[in-house]
Design brief:
This protein is an all-alpha fold. 73% of the residues lie in helices and 0% in strands. The chain has 7 helices and no strands. The longest helix is centred in the middle third of the chain and has 19 residues, at 49-67.
Length: 110
């Protein structure tokens, strides 16, 4: 049963990562308690729900930085980050670089 709920949660996150999802929202969607969902995320990913959300969002952000000309502000908001500043903070913490530096290093040439 836990595995099924986890898969439901993952699919819901993939479909809605750009929205301001919380542990409580996802738990309600898959009909389990937030505490139980957090425990399942720890078992399945080795991390927290919030860490998983950041990872999913960062994958999309990195792709858009490399492939589009959208502003960093717009990319941040379209991918569920509350602000460009928060995206910058997460980027520095996770990748050791800024979104702009990443864009310059990974830009796909036409």
């Amino acid at each position: 049963m836990k595995h099924y709920r986890y898969q439901q949660a993952i699919q819901f996150i993939k479909d809605n990562y750009m929205a301001p999802l919380t542990l409580e929202v996802v738990a309600e969607r898959v009909q389990i308690s937030p505490r139980q969902l957090q425990r399942i995320f720890r078992e399945q990913t080795g991390g927290t729900f919030s860490e998983y959300m950041e990872q999913v969002r960062m994958l999309h952000v990195c792709s858009e930085l490399a492939e589009s000309d959208m502003t960093i502000d717009r990319i941040a908001f379209q991918n569920g980050f509350s602000s460009a500043n928060y995206l910058h903070y997460v980027f520095k913490r996770k990748l050791g670089t800024t979104p702009m530096q990443y864009r310059l290093q990974h830009r796909r040439q036409p």
